[in-house]
Write a structure and sequence with these properties.
The structure is a homodimer of 151-residue chains. Chain A is globular and about 45 Å long. In chain A, 3% of the residues lie in helices and 34% in strands. Chain A has one helix and nine strands; from the N terminus they run βββββββββα. In chain A, the strands form two sheets. In chain A, strands 2-3-8-7-4-9 form a six-stranded antiparallel beta barrel. Chain A has a two-stranded antiparallel ribbon with strand order 5-6. In chain A, strand 5 (73-75) and strand 6 form a beta hairpin. Chain A has one helix at 133-136, and strands at residues 7-9, 13-16, 36-41, 57-63, 73-75, 82-84, 97-108, 111-115, 123-130. Chain A is mostly beta strands and 151 residues long. The first copy, chain A, has a single domain (13-148), classed as Elongation Factor Tu (Ef-tu), domain 3. At the A-B interface, strand 1, strand 4, strand 6, strand 7 and strand 9 of A face strand 1, strand 4, strand 6, strand 7 and strand 9 of B. Strand 1 (7-9) of chain A pairs antiparallel with strand 1 (7-9) of chain B, so a sheet runs across the interface.
Chain lengths: 151, 151
């Protein structure tokens, strides 16, 4: 295997948010306000939502479709530090996969309503996974270089 | 946009684990033992690891490359419940993206050593993101249908 291997995905839905331009997107959804969004799951995948409504938080995996190219090291916008792309959440990644934990509000047929959006309106959805405290919650995790900078 | 759109990714590395067959993989890495793994980041991406060593936990996003096709609803192996694919972590997903939080042990040049592997040996790595308690830690999250079943 090498970097020439191709892995092909296709959207399972579209994420609708209040943010119609990159400059309007909050840094992270969980810190923001007025960041409700909704997802249209393409009807042929709607059956896959069965049981999701019982969770309070879900992972959205999506495509940074408006991000062009990537930089292996980048200057972080808040902290002005030079960090590797795998040590930050920047959209300019070798594989443009975004990941955000959002708060689930309601599912109505193939529509999912949530709060905590931090992606641009019209973002292609790749996957959804339930958030569980069993395997996703590490309160004692070390926040690494983020500890050394002001919030 | 629709499900005909193609999104093409390529591996940035390979994940090496003790599990050379699907039947040997533990249910979730964080519950297991003897599950140390290591990642070979392809050298051209190694610079992107700068700063990652300061975190204790990291997200690995990878390709379920040995998973064939998907089922929108599946019977969960432990609980024998019928659930939608987006409400479970099954590898048989419309887009075969796996996501596991692992514990970082050491980074040595383009090699990452970790514990908590739950993927098959030779798995293509798509992305790494740092885990931070700021945005990834929801101790009060509702575990949904998992609450109603024995561990």
């Amino acid at each position: 295997m090498n970097k020439e291997n191709k892995i092909v995905f296709s959207p399972v839905g579209v994420i609708h948010t209040p943010f119609d331009g990159k400059e309007k997107i909050p840094r992270q959804g969980c810190f923001g306000e007025n960041n409700d969004g909704w997802i249209e799951i393409f009807p042929e995948f709607a059956e896959g939502l069965n049981g999701l409504e019982s969770f309070s938080h879900i992972y959205l995996l999506f495509h940074f479709h408006q991000s062009q190219g990537y930089l292996l090291t980048q200057i972080t916008p808040r902290h002005h530090q030079i960090k590797g792309v795998f040590a930050i959440r920047s959209p300019r990644r070798p594989n443009g996969i975004g990941m955000t934990i959002v708060k689930l509000k309601k599912i109505d047929s193939n529509k999912i309503y949530f709060s905590g959006a931090d992606m641009i309106d019209g973002t292609p959805l790749l996957d959804i996974k339930p958030y569980t405290t069993e395997i996703d919650n590490y309160p004692d995790a070390d926040n690494g270089w983020l500890k050394t900078v002001a919030k």
